[in-house]
Amino acid sequence: MANSNNNRRKFMATTLQSVGLTALGGLLWSGYSDEVKASPLVLRPPGALPEDDFLKACIKCGLCAEACENRDSNKNKDGSKRPGTLQMAKGGDHKMIGTPFFIPTDVPCFMCDDVPCVPVCPSGALDMPSLLNKEEELDINKSRMGLAVVHKESCIAFWGIQCDACYRACPLLDEAITLKYQKNERTGKHAFLLPVVQSDICTGCGLCEKACVTEKPAIFVLPTEHSTGRAGDHYVKGWDKKDQERVGNAKEIKTKNERSEKEASDYLNMEVDY
Amino acid sequence: MKNIKYLLLRRVTQFTILFLYFGANAYGWHMLEGTFGASRLFGLIPLADPYTVVQVLASGFILGADVLLGALIITVFYMVVGGRAFCSWVCPINMVTDLANWLRRKLKLDKEEVNYRFLKRRTRYWIMVLGIIVSAVVGVAAFEVLSPITIMQRGIVFGFGAGISVIIAIFLFDLFGVRNGWCGHLCPLGAAYSLIGSKSIIRVEHDHTNCTNCMDCKVVCPENQVLYMINKESISVTDGECTNCGRCVDVCNDDALGFSIRSFTK
Q1: Does residue A53 sit at the B interface (CB-CB below 8 Å)?
Q2: Residues 183-212 of chain A whose Cβ lies under 8 A from any Cβ of chain B
Q3: Looking at the complex, does the CB of residue A86 fall below 8 Å from at least one CB of chain B?
Q4: Statement: residue A200 has pLDDT above 60
Q5: What is the mean pLDDT of residues B257-264?
Q6: For residues A246 and A233, what is the distance between their CA atoms, to the nearest angstrom?
Q7: Are residues B131 and A33 in contact, defined by beta-carbon separation less than 8 angstroms?
Q8: Whole-prediction pTM value?
Q9: B39:A33 CB<8 A
Q10: Residue B118: band (very low, low, confident or very high) from pLDDT cuts 50, 70, 90
């Protein structure tokens, strides 16, 4: 009897230890996986799902990078082979290992007409339907890899120097980047030619960033999630009936302070002597 | 020559497969494109790693039909034909751990059998299940985040970077740490293929009437628990943990071991 008790105790202890160690392993593993997931400032190939879904879906096969690498057009001017745009994250890149990404200052996306990288994706991480136009054809202009932003303090066009490198480099010339003419009040007799990114058209290909002449590019692509804000349902555009419709489904928002019973015009003139 | 026949065949197979994958990126070949996670054979037939697919599904993403079909093709192939052959005929880590094992024997690092309390050969099945659970909890294929197998394969195809350290770590672990530590105790992919391939038809068969009990096969076998029948019974090695590497067949000088088609009548 005592022996069977001992055995049972031993069995319980071993089970408990196994379960405990499994839990320990699971926690470490989860923590590590969750940490490596968090590398949000990374540019993905065209058609990529939102980052969180992309990381789930990407099976890390590299077919997109291989399709990108083996373009006949990947040649320098002297005919030598040029590397493709897409790289596969390796250890040390500080991005989710094995996932495709690109760095515009290394090689930007050249927005191939036939979009070779997307149809080869077997898992659906690169979402082909999102790039189809009305004729059901692949349309690279529909991709949103990121959104270019201009840092106007370092952009020399804002200094009054005539530079339209990014404007000229943009594959959607005069659409995704437009030039805004403005009088240079400082000199009084010159004009600014200021680059303005049109965020509804910019694909985030990064050709502008690559072309930028400043030491560190003054125009650069960030993942759209990181280069955009959101006004939310609190605000509508004035004198715009259509924008009213946008907030038609807005949830009721309760104010914390009690609403004043007074007319706006009343309290604005309160306690003022004329 | 006789006693390295299957070893040579395996190395040729491994190098050929890796070279085809390498060529797909470097030269634009369409023989075998992608990586183990998902590949395309001859630019047409999808292939995919079943364990990876299960992890992705667990993370909450419904994969494309190509990948699901690919995983089915691979599963059926190893289930019916190959057994756990992926581990010894395809996986590049096998070359690393085989080297570690060979060095271990040459350096005589295994004076006595060590019994690790919480590192058993069945640990890998726990890790396999845990990988699926962690995938579901974190929302990302958990083993693919650190798998030395795909890190090494992508290293060969796209460049290693700091990923080489993972391969070195596996080598050191198997050489100075636990014998057959990675492939035989930890690797969840190996565990998955052990389960998938446990009923396959290609099997090593033992003929105990020829056996001289020299135990060379058990020394060289990376999963030598599957060779329990040596010099006892004339039966097939039916344990799914056998990788069909054929080293036992190679080293046997008494014609007591050989590949055969599994007999289902016994």
Answers
A1: yes
A2: none
A3: no
A4: yes
A5: 82
A6: 8
A7: no
A8: 0.86
A9: no
A10: confident
Residue numbers of A between 215 and 244 with CB closer than 8 Å to B: none
pLDDT value of residue B265: 56
C-alpha B227/C-alpha B93 separation (Å) is 23
- The ipTM is 0.89
B222, B101 contact by CB (below 8 A): yes
- For B12, what's the count of Cα atoms within 13 Å in the CB-facing half-sphere? 6
End-to-end alpha carbon distance in chain A:
102
Query: pLDDT at residue B1 above 60?
Result: no
Residue with tokens 């059998």: B113
Phi, psi at residue B158, to the nearest 5°?
Answer: -115, -5
- Cα separation, B85 vs B77, in Å, equals 10
Query: pLDDT tens for residues B94-115?
Result: 999 999 999 998 888 887 777 7
- Give the whole-angstrom CA distance, residue A111 versus residue A173: 13
B103 contacts B166 by C-beta, under 8 angstroms: no
First to last CA, chain B: 34
Contact B96, A151 (CB under 8 A): no
Least CA distance to A65: which residue of chain B?
Answer: B25
